[in-house]
């Protein structure tokens, strides 16, 4: 049984970025309330942009927090924040594809799996552990449902 889970290092780095953004927002609001060094338009735009970036990062982190177990001819997707677990037999895979993007002399890979109930999951090699094991399992168990290989260079 292969367990694909988010990399801890990814969530630590995203949490540090969130911490810096939140402290910047707090300092900006503190400056507005005590000194008012800049015009009101600056505070409105800066606080709105920082809040929007914080919300987008939080949504990305929460949406990506899932655990996938692969083995015994089934794929189990567990979403702890939603309290949901779905078990898909390998026969319910409609299609799957692996994309490779070369950027900055690094190779980024992502597998997208579409299921018969119109749900899909995406797993990348930089955000998840056991990526190569998942791809080899899919090549072995669902080789006929693979979409032809794509390789993009930006």
TrEMBL record:
Keyword vocabulary terms for this entry: Membrane, Transmembrane, Transmembrane helix
TM helices/strands, residue ranges: 12-29, 41-59
Record protein name field: PH (Pleckstrin Homology) domain-containing protein
Organism: Algoriphagus jejuensis
């Amino acid at each position: 049984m292969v367990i694909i889970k988010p990399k801890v290092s990814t969530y630590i780095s995203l949490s540090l970025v969130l911490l810096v953004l939140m402290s910047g927002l707090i300092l900006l609001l503190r400056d507005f309330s005590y000194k008012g060094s800049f015009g009101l338009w600056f505070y409105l735009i800066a606080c709105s942009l920082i809040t929007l970036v914080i919300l987008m990062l939080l949504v990305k982190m929460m949406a990506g927090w899932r655990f996938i177990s692969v083995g015994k001819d089934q794929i189990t997707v567990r979403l702890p924040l939603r309290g949901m677990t779905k078990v898909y037999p390998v026969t319910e895979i409609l299609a799957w594809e692996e994309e490779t993007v070369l950027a900055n002399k690094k190779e980024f890979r992502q597998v997208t799996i579409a299921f018969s109930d119109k749900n899909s999951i995406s797993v990348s090699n930089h955000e998840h552990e056991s990526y190569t094991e998942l791809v080899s399992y899919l090549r072995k168990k669902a080789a006929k449902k693979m979409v032809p290989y794509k390789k993009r260079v930006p």
